[in-house]
Amino acid sequence: MKTLTRSLLSILILFIQFFMAGGAFATPEAADQSRPDLVLRIHGLIPALKVVDDIAGATGSQVSPSLLLGGMLQGTAWIDSSKDIVLGAWFDPEHPEAQPVMGALVPFASENAGFASAYHAKAGGSYYLISLPPGNPKPLSEALESALAKESMATSGRFLSMEISLSHILKNADPIVEKWAGEVEKKIMAGRPGSSPSITPDQARKMVSGLVDLGKQVKRLAVGIDINKSEASFFMSVKGGEGSRLNGILTKKGAPGESRLVNLSLPGNYPIRFSVHPFSNKDIIGFLNDSLGGFYKSIGINPAETGKIMKYFTGETVGGMRINKDAGIEMSVAAVFDDKEKRKPDFLQSVYIPWLMDYGKNMAAASKGALPGERFAPNFTKAAESRVSGHRTLGVKGWLPVMSAPGAKAEKKFFSIRMTVLDGLLLAASDDRRLGELIAAAKDLKSGPATGPFFEARMRATDLISPGGAGNPGRSGAGELIMTVDIRDGELVIEYKTRIADIKTLAASAMKGQKQQTPSAGEQSRSRSRPKIAKTEKKHELTPGEPEYWINKGSLYSSYGNENAAVKSFKKALKLDPQAVEAEFKLGVSYGALRDYDKALKHMNTALSKSPENGRFLYGRAWIYLLSGQRDKAMIDMKAAAQKGNPDAMRYLVRPQ
Question: What is the pTM of this model?
Fold first, then answer.
């Protein structure tokens, strides 16, 4: 795992790389001499670098990010940190295919001749001005220089931020978007050997089209990072364009600031907790359906159908969740019914549970594309009816594929939802005991003024270090990753915050885990020169009369590089069971390590004759062919192994040549 300090440093260096991008951008005349369409700004560089250095120190790193960046900038003490370093880009909406006009402004407290010379910068009183790429013979116009100077003075107060005038850039960009969509489609069609795309080319095109249509309604999109001595945050904000449907949603007054759940004390020590204020379901679901409905429908999700069930709720929700390694998904959730919408007396039985069941079927269909190679899909079934605290309780149970991180292998997780209705509230929990606790907490609940952001979710940092840490709750108000979503003055603002102390703890923990998992130089050498051999799980106490005993023993010898002893063990396994295909394969691997390629290929061929569809065996034979100099045969097996889904073969085929 890369440390956070490296990520922060890479973002900083990205700014410098704009300076060094020789010939990357042309500089036609700008069509608009006003505010840049793209503004990248850095505020308080020097104090922020000190914090980054402190985080790096917590990992035991001997590299100072500030020294690295200082070397590229010819030092940093000369920079005026009270003003923003600014990079601006102007796009011509009439000629979207043209390269943008770009420039950078670096305010200084004292002149730095070395920096000016290195980047061909023009001194402008209290700042350096750079026409990008550096050394471009065509300097920025006075109007553009004035625009950058104005942006530098109007500091954002954020460490690193980028603002994009999205609607202006996309105004006449349909030809470029069409070209981009075609590129995405080609990449998906090419894909990775042996794997299925998570979405089809048609789905990708619909997604791109929907996102572009949505982007045309965005006057300003901003993303960035803020960092100080005590806290770090990532933020994104969206401002709708005047007259756009998005702007109407963001500026429309919501429901009265009264909350049914503001005083609900959610039972259970959940590491993940969230709350949502009331909002207009109809407007938001309709907007998403019109903007991205084509893509959603293509993957089996229909926003319009979701809207049909969401209309019964105000949107106000409070909940907690835990995903355990063994126990599956645990949760407690309370949602508020909309009194304006009439409900059937048996709403749960006749409307809500049938909708959940249909939703499960749609998820199952969608997961076949999203989780290629998995042997399971979401599966929902109705649970038995019961009574909890005198209330009729219905439920749904089953399992879901859950990914712990983007790109990670999905894991099968059990879930159960037990539900009842109480005084205009839908209460749901994983089991009857938790539901009983939730019913007790919700009884005689009093409303109060809505406080805090529109949406808030909190996750304990301790659970990021030790997932599922039910026995490691951490301190209240400390060690949390906090996500908020709010609407301020017609602008949607999403922000993630956490303490610097927690970042240092996570970074140090990640570095410690990385060191523990890093193999020795000898192990690395062996892992590069031979296919990986999976360990056989010990089911019971094996005896020398069983072939698995000798397979395990041979694997142990092999892991320590004693291939001659490994060969003897694998031969003993085959003597006990001539059909032991795993022993046959591993015997071939060991002969390959001993450079006896004829015997290695003999045993690999025997293993493949018994298991011709085994991608690992195909990769093993490809490895022997490579070692023996038979590259053409090796590539045939390597491609076949990749098509069977072997990850080592896939990595080999996509490695840099």
Answer: 0.65
